[in-house]
Structure formats: structure tokens, C-alpha cells
Amino acid sequence: MKYRRLTKEQLEELHPEFINFLATQSITADEWDNLKKEKPEVAEEEIDVFSDLIWEGVLSKVEYLENISERHMHLFHLTEKEMKLLSVKIMNPEIDLRTEVGFGWFKRNYQSDFVEYLTASKAYGEDKNVDKFEIIKQGAVITKGELYQWFEQIVEH
């Protein structure tokens, strides 16, 4: 398995797609029920293949990821050729960026000495989707990139 198995909730949400996937494998509903009972390991493999296909589709479209912790923000822009990072570090120990109050403090004080910025970029390895997935495994979430774009404008000025 290249990525990770979809959760039960994700699989339920993608039930119609999974049925289509099984149909492309020429597996009917009755055959699927039989497979789960008689050869559960084969059924598990089918779920893993389906999960990887879904992840491939999602990862190929991802452009922005965010990983926000108590005092750090790691904002990624995943371009065609490289991964760009905008990193923010808060030096005020009383601030938690994950809270509304903490993030409000940051928006008011983003130019203060209590905030450090770092930008970096890195070329993808052999498989850009695997690189993206590694960032997600570390806690990042897929976003539309509004925060990254806001920062990009601040950094440029």
C-alpha cells in the first residue's frame, strides 16, 4: 500500500465510487459479499488498492497545506516543480495560534519582534504525491491557501 487505507467513514462516503471501482474489476455485489466471507485478505487488498487510487486523485490536485500548532504555522504551496514553505514562529509563550484569541493576537502583531518568519522551497523527490502525503501524515490539512496567499502578500511588501 502506497499511502494509507481510507477510514470507515471515508469509505462509506465514497460508497458509490467503490461500487464503480469493483465494477471495473468485474466484481458484482454478490461476489463482493462472498469475497469478504471466503477470502477476507483479498477483500482487504481491494480496499487498499481503492484507497491508493483515491489518495492519488486527491494528492494530484492539492495545492496548499497548513500545519498549525501552538506557536508555529507551516504553510505550504505545492507548485508543479517544488514545495514552497512559509513558516511562522511566535515567541510569545502566552499565545496559542490554534485559538481564536491567539490567532487574533497574531493578526494584530504579525510585524512585531515576537514573530519570526522563514521561507524555503524544496524540489520534489521521486514521487511528488508521496512528498505531499508525508506532510499530511505529519499533521497538515488540505486548504484553499487563503492564509498562505495573505502571507505571501505581506512578505512581498
UniProtKB/TrEMBL annotation:
InterPro entries: DUF6495. The lineage of its organism: Bacteria, Pseudomonadati, Bacteroidota, Flavobacteriia, Flavobacteriales. It comes from the Bacteria. This is Histidyl-tRNA synthetase.
